[in-house]
Structure formats: C-alpha cells, structure tokens
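Q: Give me the 3D complex with arginine.
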Amino acid sequence: MSPWFNPARELDALIRRVAAGLPALGPAFDPQVRPATDARHGDYQANGILAAAKAAKANPRALATDLLSALQAEGTLAKAGLEVEVAGPGFLNFRLTPAALHAWIQAFPDADAWRRGAAALHAGRKVVIDYPSPNTAKQMHVGHLRPIVIGEAVARLLEFCGASLTRDNHIGDWGTNFGILILAIRLKGFVLDAASPTALEDLEALYKEGSALTKADPAALDAARAELARLQSGDAESLALWERIVAVSNAACQRIYDQFGLRSDVVLGESFYRDKVDQVYRELQACGLAEESDGALVVWHDEVPRYSRHAETKLPFIVRKKDGSSNYASTDLATVLYRAEVLGAQEVVYVTDGRQQDHFQQLFLTAEKWFKATGRTLPRLRHVWFGTILGEDGKAIKTKSGDPVRLQSLIDEATAKALEKVNEKSGDLPEAERRDVIAPRLGVAALRYADLVSNRTMDYRFSWDKMLAFEGNTAPYLLYQAVRVRSVFRNAGVAAGQGEAGATPPETPGEIALARKLLGFTAALDEASEDLRPHILCTYLHELAGAYSSFYADNKVLVDDPAVRARRLALCARTSALLESGLRLLGIEPLERM
Ligand code: ARG
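A: Here is the predicted complex, encoded as structure tokens.
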C-alpha cells in the first residue's frame, strides 16, 4: 500500500478518472471532494454527484451507487486503505482505515517528507515575491509589520510547496519625497553622517520640515520639483547624496529585518527601473494602449470606472506625469517586464496593503493588454493584500503625538512584556536564557502570530494581552505546546523518531483523532497555498495542539506494552515535528524550553 500525501487531492483525481468511463458522468464531472466536517461521516466526502444527477436527470443515489461500484472494481481505494459508502441523497463518504493512517504516519515522518509531498503544488514554478518593499528614507513603523510578517510567511509557504522562489525587495527609492528631502538638506546645510545612530531620524525630521515648507510656499514646492528633476536627470552631486540616503535607510531596515529573520534575494527598487521606463512609454504608445492627456501619458481601461465614486476625478492609469517624470505605475510596468524576461517569472506575488488594490487592478490590466499586443507571455500576477492594524480602541493605531508607532519600539515592548511573562512562568530557568533567548523570540513570535492568525484581508485589533496569552490561538500557547511534546522524549530517554519499531496502527479514539489531525496538515497546506492565506495554517496548528492535548490526557505514552508505546511515541514525534515545522513556516523559530 502506498500512502497518498494528500488523500483529498488524489481521491479527486481518481474519481475523475473512473467517472470519465461512466456514461452518466463523463470527463467533465467535478466530484467536489472535501474533508468531512463531521468525523462520523468519515474523512472525506464527494458532493458532486447531486449536481451531476440533476443535469443528467438521473437518480442521484443510483448514480452514486454506480460510481461506488466502479471505484471498487478499479481497486486503488482498497490498496490505499480507504473505505467508501453511499450516504444521504447521493454523497460518497470515504474513511481512512487505521492501517492507512498508520502507513501515512510511517511514510511522512518529517519536514523533508512533507516538503516532497507538497512539492507537487508549485512543482518548480518560478515565482517572484515582492515584499516587504518599504519606501526609503523613513524609519520603519507599525505599517511595515504586515508586509514583513505576511510576506515572509507567504514566501516560506510557496517555497515549501515547491516553488522556485526569488524574494525581491522592491524598495521605494525614487519617489517625489526625494525632491523635498534633498531640498531640505540643502537649505539646512545638513551634513549626512551615515555612521550616526540618529541619521535616519534626522532625515525624517528634515523631510517633515521640507514637506511643511512646500505645502506653505509655492516657490519651495517648485524648488523641490527642481531638485527631483535634477536627481532624475542624473546630476552627479544629487545622485551621490541620494545614494547615501538610501544606504542609511537600508541599513536601518536591515536591523529590523534581522529581528524578523527576513532576507531578500534581490533588492531591485524603483530606481533600478529608471532607465527602463522609456521602453514602456514607447511600446504602450506603439500598440495604441496609452494616449496623451493634459501632457501626461495615460491608459484607460473599460473594465475600470472612468470616474471615482463621487464623479469628480477621472481615474486613468497615469504612466508618465505631466512634467515627464516616471511614477509608481511606470516603474511597476517596467518591473513586470524585467521579472518576466530577465528573472523568468511564471508568477509574481505582490504583498501590500489593501489600499493599493486599485493600483494593482490597473497595473495587471495594462500589463495583460500590453503583453498580449507585443506577443509576450504574461506571468500570473497576484496581489496578496491585507487589512489595517487597529488600536485597542478600534481606530488606526498611533502614538499620543499622532506619529506612527515605530516598529522598533513595538519589538522592544513585545520583548519586555514577554520577559515579564517568562519570569512569572519559568523563573527557574537561567536568567540569561530568559532574557537573551526566550523573551526576544517569544515577543517577536507573539507580534507575528497575532498578525497572521486572522484572515489577512480583515482588519484586526492590536492587543498585547491577547497576543501574549498562554491560552487561546496564540504564539505563546503553540510554542509552549511544542515544548511540552518535546518533554515526552526527555522523559522517555529517547530522541524523537526513535523507539518506534513494532508500532501498531492507532486504536484508541484519542490516537485515531490525533492521527487524522496529523494527516489534515496536507489539506491545510493545499488550502493555505491556494489563496496564499497563512491563517489557515494557524487554525490547523491550533487544532493539532488541541488534538494532542486530548490524546495525551487519555493515553499514557510510556506504557509497558512495546507496540502501544511505540505507536504513541510515533504520534508524539509527528506532532512535535509538525508543530515545529508549521511554526517555522509562519516564520517562528520554536524554543528548546520555556
Ligand atoms: N513601496 C510601496 C509602498 O510602500 C510598496 C511597493 C510594492 N511593490 C510594488 N511593486 N508596487 O507602498
């Protein structure tokens, strides 16, 4: 018997194959295989027969019975250890036998095995993921938490599922803000010392002053525009200053990335595309997509309303500004081309705030039409967007002064609060370990998990109490459960994965429920990677920890019967490995003890 990595997926393929040979179903039949919602109905159900029977004006129960006979005659189900029965008005229910669960547990023991099983999902597809892509010359603030955390989790998920991944940090290093910033630096006679620890704060303060000045004084605004034009036309002195600003900013971002374990393969920011936008203008005009409007170059899409909701502003996709300079749209178009032709992307994933949905809708439409007109193949483009972090009061999160909360202060506060918790809970551990290892990891893990646990397209309320609680669907709870499972092996005096010889299939309700839940990882992985939604993995891990707790309460592991002991140790070892691998997929490094 060779176990299936994800039975739901392979059942689907098997049923389609068998149904193709049945006249009443045929090759277009969609079996709609789903994990069963109620364990009493088995592990999976195929719900598609009702719709097919309706279309064929056939009796659904008779059709289900025919399909069942054909499946049984084919023979694969019995070999895979799946029992099948007709249920209700015409469903097929499938149940994994204890032998099948056992075979799965033996065949897929660790992260490498799961990775091999999951690799079919993306099968070596070349994917470029664009994150966290901050704008430069600003300190990172709370708004940068989600692109870092969600971007990293999505990247790890894609990689785990077999994608050949390029992490591209598309920093915003060529925007209008540089005109204002350089103007302010010149007016103040400010000398930028890259080694100064406050370099970035100083730049931010200067930018604020410059911005206020350009708002109050039209002459200053013109001067800022002139600075930007000078920079964009390649003036050596401006470029040298710009380069130093970007270096200071990148170094500060890197200190944050390090604390989140984030690394990029390439950092090709907006400035990288500055000599690549002319081709975009030329081609868009040549294929009749772009037209001049009030001196700007714009693209209109019938798919997008021409006017905003209030019918006041027109909504063309502006690809070149009136003054001839490039913008977010032009660099993004050039970026699509580069990723397709130079990086060989078959798929591009953009991780940003939901407020950029309109931009990406127009970007994707323009790219689609442009690539089609020029005979190119467009990679699959996906916008993985997320909602806003709200304060405990339900409003956008801010400091008392109204400035955004700095990301470093969030990390520091999370670490301090985590240390308090650890001191309370595990005061017996060495102080240095609590302070230097556990608190920083637990703090960042709590921030991170709270950001991943709800569906990314929803807003969520930021709550220290909730994210640091040891109960509920939180990082502390899962990390603690992972440590608890490990302790079984310390007590048994064997390493995880050892002592399993002679293990028999699961038998007690707790064993069977845990084995089923372990296997449920494959469906969670499929689902999470389909829409790139990490919260599905969080839900799964929380349920796994729950199934383990119930198992552990009713099933003593270190019993005398060698077969029972071996199979329970195997269940513990898989739980431990899955909890830890699952946390790593989310970007969280498990702890040895806490
Ligand atoms: N720099 C942008 C921002 O901070 C995000 C860039 C996302 N990537 C892209 N290719 N547009 O909002």
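A quick observation: The chain has three domains: 7-96, 143-386, 410-594.
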